[in-house]
Every structure is written in structure tokens, then in C-alpha cells.
Amino acid sequence: MKIKELQNSFAKELISTSYDTSIDIMEVGLDEIFTDGILRELPVIKTINTAFKVGLSINDRYFAKKLIKFITELKNEQIDDDKLLEFRARMEEEPFKDKTTERLIIILDKLDEINMTLYISKLFKGFIGKKITWDDFCNFSKYINLMVTEDFELLEFLGTKGNSGENISDSEMKQLEGNANKLMNFNFLKVDFIVTTSVGSSPVTLIHSLTADGFKILSCII
């Protein structure tokens, strides 16, 4: 398949003002993606379908499903009208369109779990809404494939409960310790060391909190 054809079709879907967001792609089987009456009329599906002389592989069908899932999730997101219009105008510029669609295709192709397209769509919405930069989007997206639901829950937990001044119990933190270590490697969390001085001992308490990047990604996913 010519990547340029796929990029152009994908771009049309990204800026389209009409799209059936009621499509539940999770309920659609891999074999149905190219035969379903609604789905097969999407420009991006037409491009993939006509590009192959032989049957589509499972990987091709799964990739197509991720593309549709991403588009559907993005269309379901609430985006400021002015910023959305600005994004659509920029998509008319060939260099911006090529850079954006190429990166999105690479990111979605690498995703192991189709459910993670939800978070990619939220990050992309954050980029359109100027909550994060393009570099932030590219940087954060590479970690999505390595994250699980509990990681996102921990980010939200620390970003809300932590900011309210409440202490996180030892049992809560013990349960989430593995997730915290992972998020520290991604530079989403940091550790503050608090030393409590008492007679004969100086206990050290580890308090996890969000980094600047942690707050950025949280602003997109909640």
C-alpha cells in the first residue's frame, strides 16, 4: 500500500464534520470491517481494501480496526470549536498533514491493545486543544503501549487526592508500588523524601507526586 494514499484518507477522516460515532467497533469482528455497509464506505477503509490484490492479513484487519476506533473516540471528544477550526486549517498544509498522519499511523500500528486507542485519542485531543505540544504528544504516546488501566488510575489518584492535601495510606501505596515505579521511569512521577526526626531514629517517608509531565498527561486523560 502506498503510505501517501493512506495518509490522505486518514486526514479526511480526521477533519470530517460528519461521522457516525455510534459505531461500536469493539463489537465488529475482523472479518466484518471490510464488509459492513457503513464501515466499508469510510475513505480509510476503502484505501486499505483496494490496495491489496490478495486477501487482507489479520494484522491488516486489526490495524484497520484500531484506525476506526481512534477516529470514533476522537469524534466523541469535546474539543473547543476555535481550536478545532485552527487544527482543520493546519491540516490543509501538506507538511503538517503529512507529519501528523504519518506519526499517528505509526503510533496506532504499534499498539498491542485496541483499548489503548482511547488514550491516544485523548492525548491527540490535548494536542489539538493546546494542552500539550506536538513533542509532548509524540513523547507520551510511546509510553501508552506500556501502560495498563491501573497506571492511569494512579495518575488520577495522585493528581486529585495528592493535591487535596490528603495522605495516601501505606496499604494504598503498597498496592500501587509497581505502577508507581513504572511511571517514575516514564518521568510522570517523582518521589519526595520526608524525614521525621524523633529521639534515636529518623524515619524516612516516601511520598509520590506528579511531575510536570505527569500533570500534562493527566490534563488530557481525565
Q: In a nutshell, what does this entry contain?
A:
The protein has 222 residues and is mostly helical. It has helices at 3-15, 43-51, 58-76, 81-90, 94-110, 117-128, 134-144, 149-160, 170-175, 177-185, 212-221; strands at residues 189-195, 204-210.
What are the SSEs and their pairings?
Elements: H1 3-15, H2 43-51, H3 58-76, H4 81-90, H5 94-110, H6 117-128, H7 134-144, H8 149-160, H9 170-175, H10 177-185, E1 189-195, E2 204-210, H11 212-221
Helix pairs in contact: 1-2, 1-5, 3-6, 6-7, 6-11, 8-11
Name the features.
Arc Repressor Mutant, subunit A, 2 strands, mainly alpha, 58% helix, 222 residues, 2 domains, two-stranded antiparallel ribbon, single chain
Write up what this structure looks like:
With 222 residues, this protein is mostly helical. The chain folds into 2 domains: 142 residues, no CATH class; 73 residues, Orthogonal Bundle (Arc Repressor Mutant, subunit A). Helices cover 58% and strands 6% of the residues. It has 11 helices and 2 strands. The chain has a two-stranded antiparallel ribbon. Strand 1 and strand 2 form a beta hairpin. The longest helix is centred in the N-terminal third of the chain and has 19 residues. It is globular. The two termini are 36 Å apart.
